Amino acid sequence: MKTVYITTPIYYVNAKPHIGHAYTTIVCDVVTRFNRMLGNEVKFVTGTDEHGKKIEQSAVNAGLEPIEFTNQVSKLFRDLLPIINISNDDFIRTTEERHKKAVSHLWNTLNDKGYIYLGEYSGWYDVRNEAYFSEDELVNGKSPHGCDVIMMNEECYFFKLSEFQNRLLEFYDEHPDFIHPNQRRNEVLSFVQGGLKDLAISRKTFKWGIPVPNDSDHIVYVWLDALTNYLTLNNYPENLDQSNDRYWRNAIHFVGKEIVRFHAVYWPAFLMAAEISPPKQIVVHGWWMSEGEKMSKSLGNVQDPVKYCNLFGSDSLRYFLLRELAFGSDGNFSLEGFIGRYNGILANSYGNLCKRTISFAQKYCNCVVTSPKRFTEEDIVLSEKIDKLLEETVGLVEHYAFNKYLERIEQALSLLNQFIDYQKPWELKDKDQERMQDVLYTLLDNTYKVTSFFEPVIPQAAEKVMSQIDMSEDGVIKVNDSDEQLFPKIDAKNIGEFDVFARD
Ligand code: MSP
After folding, report:
1. What is the per-residue pLDDT across 419-432, written as a single tens digit (0 to 9) for each?
2. What span, in angstroms and rounded, lies between the C-alpha atoms of 206 and 57?
3. How far, in Å, CA of 498 to CA of 142, rounded?
4. 6 lines ligand 1 (CB under 6 A)
5. What average pLDDT does range 337-349 have in this prediction?
6. 448 Cβ partners below 8 Å, 6+ apart?
7. Whole-angstrom Cα distance, residue 77 to residue 17?
8. Residues 6+ apart with CB under 8 A from 182
9. Residue 116 has pLDDT above 80, yes or no
10. Which of 6, 8, 11, 327 to mutate to test the pocket of ligand 1 (most atoms within 8 A of CB)?
11. What is the pLDDT of residue 133?
12. 57 near 214, Cβ under 8 Å?
């Protein structure tokens, strides 16, 4: 049995969640459920990142106190979890006491070990992304994120990041899988090889945050605050020996490509300074575009995950997000693409297979199908092919190739559908009752197996199907059909009627 500690980034609470946020959380949930299916021990956590100037500003714009504002928006993120069927073990808010304690403790540790000093910073500050940039990093006078920057001088505390260049490079070398995929690893390596400057880790320009211990004029830099959530959620500082903790040693942080540097450079450096071993892996995914363009409020193309779930169910959103995009690359989210995959695989291939098999067994086998006395060559070949496809999914999920994992499931479904068409149980029922039973047994047994490997992505439907195919007694399968359709077909002609965009 393996142990895994899986984390999502904690989400900024300045706007309500969209499909991009749902994506990271769903990916983590699928990895969690897949591991649990294999019998591994998983702790899976998520939460909200609530401090900083940007959020203070959003609260002012909304006419609210920061805490009232963050209470409201954090709740939207928390409420999204059951809607997209997330099986997390904990949810953190950086405004919680347990987190403030962890941040203060980490700060004091870094300070006691001599890695913090007071100095003055001047540079180009991107308020949207809460990050400073040097002159040569600006692109046409804007930050690399394309946002406006302002020149700022600030007294602040610095972290001696420059001392960590060699230790980080050695660490990446000794842990070649630390950053996944390789392209991101290479970017990080060349950034660190280029030299590291000390990092400003406090701010005096706003109040909404965690005060620096013993100097409350300063607020802890949001990224030091936010990154520490991963420790808070693993009971730091009560549990100080993180390096020997079975969860921490197996921590995997999933992040979008824009926040790699914070996770793969600053975070391991902070941890090394505190004498805590870095997490096991940083796994980086790409970005979703919407209907061919960057998602933005002003374009009105922000895809709303809640609307998708209400219209088509959470399973189909989860399935589409994992199937459509080659993990790590950018992808395009379109309603048309969604409906295409929904109808093709979920409604036709999977939904019909389950319906046909279960209702046939209910009607013509009296709900009970016993194991064949002898499996035919065709039955054996089918089962072997399916076992092989399912076995392959394990390595694919381990390497985050979710689209390939789902391709294997689809291949297994199409083998099962071909088997029905070829064996024609509806003809056998009048010709050869025994063979009909045997065909049904092979079908139900394999449908159940495929369903259990499909469950991490479509938990709701899979649980229904697994409750309709009772495999608890050796050599006997009992079915109980239901009238409910698993994935009712969507009429693509009605596309214009579906309202899937966030409106406010
Ligand atoms: N608060 C920081 C993370 C701190 S973690 C210690 C943050 N928050 S965020 O809300 O702006 O974004 C969080 C994550 O949402 C991104 O890393 C990314 O995983 C996901 N996405 C946001 N928009 C996205 C898309 N359009 N597409 C895919 N994922 C994107 O950064």
Report:
1. 999 999 999 999 99
2. 10
3. 37
4. no
5. 97
6. 465, 466, 469, 471, 477
7. 6
8. none
9. yes
10. 11
11. 87
12. no
Task: Label residue 341 by pLDDT band (50, 70, 90).
Answer: very high
Q: Are 455 and 463 in contact (CB under 8 A)?
A: yes
Q: Rounded mean pLDDT of the chain?
A: 96
Q: Give, to the nearest 10 degrees, the angle between helix 314-324 and helix 305-312.
A: 120
pLDDT tens, residue by residue, 14-60: 889 999 999 999 999 999 999 999 999 999 999 999 999 999 999 99
Instruction: Determine whether the shortest distance from the Cβ of 255 to ligand 1 is under 6 A.
Output: yes
Write down the pLDDT at residue 354: 97
Q: Which two tokens stand for residue 18?
A: 């969209």
Q: What is the pLDDT of residue 127?
A: 83
Please work out whether the CB of residue 12 comes within 6 Å of at least one atom of ligand 1: yes
Cβ 287 under 6 angstroms from ligand 1:
yes
3-state secondary structure 266-308: HHHHHHHHCCCCCCCEEEEECCEEECCECCCCCCCCCECHHHH
Q: How remote is the CA of residue 479 from the centroid of ligand 1, in Å? A: 44
User: Nearest C-alpha to atom 20 of ligand 1 is from which residue?
Assistant: 21
And the tokens for 195?
């030299």
Ligand 1 geometric centre to CA of 436 (Å): 52
Which residues lie across from 369 on neighbouring strands? 477
Q: Which residue has the tokens 């939904």?
A: 351
Which ligand 1 atom is nearest residue 230's CA? Answer: 6
Candidate from 79-83, 137-141, 212-216, 498-502 with smallest mean pLDDT: 498-502
**Residue 308 token pair:** 């998708």
CA distance 301 to 19: 11
With H, G, I as helix, E, B as strand and everything else as coil, classify residue 65: coil
Q: What does the alpha-carbon distance between residue 102 and residue 92 come to, in Å, rounded to a whole number? A: 12
With vertex at residue 247, the alpha carbon angle to CA 271 and CA 403, rounded to the nearest 5 degrees, is 100
